[in-house]
Design brief:
Elements (H helix, E strand, L loop, with lengths): L14 H25 L5 H34 L9 E3 L1 H19 L2 H22 L3 H7 L2 H26 L1 H15 L11 H15 L21 H8 L8 H24 L6 H17 L6 E3 L3 H7 L4 H16 L2 H7 L6 H17 L6 H26 L4 H4 L2 H7 L1 H8 L2 H16 L3 H17 L5 E4 L2 E4 L7 H23 L1
Antiparallel strand pairs: 1-2, 3-4
């Protein structure tokens, strides 16, 4: 029976833990935007702080308030008090893809950072439209896909791009970061209460900041910041100017796959939330996701927003709906008042990233705990594409640090010891490959050979179009190659799998 508003407060004490974690996650994305746009695109601060960050703030505010309202509505409909809102923020993968494969090439060709920003707005707008269109077909896709396939892809991202990255950061500053991490694990793993009922996340951040300042790690960082108002401004003019030029059409090979990637990733996160106990309707969740990206583009941000990975972690922390609303409010204030950098000058990231490491741990654990135990090998199989994507990122980062690139070095030096061709092929469209491999694994475990054959046929179709496995090595990096039979060797390979599984199905029926 539906319950009243009074029994479901907008804010509970445990929302503070979720708020600190989600806020730090969003702050990291904003810092990446500032640093990449400054250092690579050479975009003036007037555009970064006056257009991009206010546009991102409006998008984050609208999305966080929607998902907070959605959680309250679900709580009242079900009469439950433990409903947690879907986390939401800037899409990290799209951020890097748009900077390196759209904005940077345009800047290198034209030497015009504003032009690069304008085409980035178009990319963000089109990504939002793709996400909105995906809302109409996502639920049937979700019903046809095994839970292990959806969760395995998230687990791969969690163990690589979240857990490993933050683990490295923690162990790079052990004196500052290890104690806050231990406090977070003590609070979240052991359910240990702190004096005065203080949230574990708040205690960890306070002690981490105190260690950083006490040990002199922050001593050279200036505390002064210019407080100013940066109101959001409608970006219809720059958008229209970029749409009138055919230049953005050359980058549809990046925009379309990233839009589809965002739809699939959000779908996986909705499935993850259901596995944790909160069943949200797919259509409004994905539609709001797309609307958020459209709003971002219309107000000057070139970076799509998305439903974040990590709902089960926030739920285990005890966060409900208030943490989402609080995050939207604070991020908006930081972006619209120019105080975002002041926060980072006071609080080192190492003090709070243990919360995000915990989120990665929970996601990986969930992929095994919330699927039948006999499907565990299929989940493990689905981790490998994300591991390949992370490994390629490490290779490229190492080459850049040495003043080179994968294009300059070539593939030959890596071929014998690293099987670089296989790594890059598995990295292209790795979210789809992860789902496909895990789904095939599930149906092999269940001896449903016909369904395994159909997934193999689906993989052959994606390989033929270039959505997975097909790539080209360019001066700007590894990019997907699209077209008829873009990855012919993988088309043949998956068709052979299809034939094999059909033969197994026939043999099973004959038996």
């Amino acid at each position: 029976m539906p319950s009243s508003h009074s029994t479901h407060p907008w804010f509970v004490r445990k929302d503070l833990d979720g708020f600190f974690g989600l806020m730090i996650d969003n702050l990291i994305q904003l810092i990446l935007i500032v640093s990449l746009c400054r250092e690579l695109i050479h975009l003036p601060d007037a555009y970064i702080f006056g257009r991009i960050l206010p546009g991102a703030a409006i998008s984050i505010l609208v999305g966080n308030f929607f998902y907070a309202w959605q959680a309250r509505r679900l709580a009242m409909e079900t009469g439950r008090e433990d409903v947690t809102a879907l986390p939401y923020g800037i899409n990290t993968v799209s951020l890097f893809a748009y900077v390196f494969f759209i904005m940077l090439p345009i800047y290198q060709q034209t030497n015009d950072p504003v032009r690069a920003w304008q085409v980035g707005l178009v990319a963000c707008l089109l990504s939002g439209f793709i996400e909105m269109a995906g809302a109409f077909i996502a639920e049937p896709v979700r019903r046809m896909t095994p839970r292990a396939a959806l969760l395995a892809a998230l687990a791969g991202i969690a163990v690589t791009f979240i857990a490993m990255d933050f683990t490295f950061r923690i162990f790079a500053q052990p004196v500052i970061a290890l104690l806050p991490l231990a406090l977070i694990l003590l609070s979240y793993f052991s359910r240990q209460r702190f004096p005065l009922g203080l949230p574990g996340g708040l205690v960890a951040i306070a002690i981490g900041a105190g260690l950083a300042w006490g040990l002199g790690a922050m001593a050279e960082t200036p505390l002064r910041t210019g407080l100013a108002l940066f109101p959001p401004a409608f970006a219809g003019g720059p958008l229209w100017e970029a749409l009138r030029q055919p230049e953005f059409l050359k980058y549809l090979s990046v925009i379309v796959p990233m839009g589809i990637f965002n739809v699939v990733g959000s779908l996986q996160n909705i499935e993850s939330a259901e596995a944790a106990g909160d069943r949200y309707r797919t259509f409004p969740s994905l539609m709001a996701n797309g609307v958020g990206s459209v709003v971002a583009a219309l107000f000057g941000s070139a970076f799509p927003t998305t439903i974040y990975i990590g709902h089960p972690g926030w739920k285990r922390l005890g966060a409900r709906s208030g943490y989402s609303a609080l995050d939207g409010i604070l991020i908006t204030l930081l972006c619209l008042t120019g105080t975002m950098q002041a926060v980072l000058r006071l609080i080192p990231l190492e003090a709070g990233i243990g919360i995000l490491l915990y989120i990665g741990i929970v996601i990986v654990a969930q992929s095994f705990q919330e699927t039948p135990k006999e499907h565990a090998p299929a989940v493990a199989l689905g981790l490998f594409p994300a591991l390949a994507a992370w490994g390629l990122m490490m290779v490229e980062a190492g080459l850049r640090a040495a003043g080179s690139s994968l294009y300059q070095a070539g593939l030959a030096p890596f071929a014998q010891s690293l099987a670089i061709h296989g790594m890059i092929s598995l990295e292209r469209g790795f979210v789809f490959s992860s789902m496909i491999l895990a789904a095939i694994g599930v149906f092999l475990v269940e001896r449903q050979f016909l369904r395994a054959a159909l997934w193999s046929l689906f993989a052959a179709a994606l390989s033929a179009s270039g959505i997975i496995h097909a790539y080209e090595l360019t001066p700007a990096g590894v990019v997907s190659r699209f077209g008829l039979l873009a990855a012919p060797e993988f088309v043949v390979g998956y068709l052979l799998l299809c034939v094999l599984f059909l033969s197994a199905a026939w043999w099973k029926k004959a038996e």
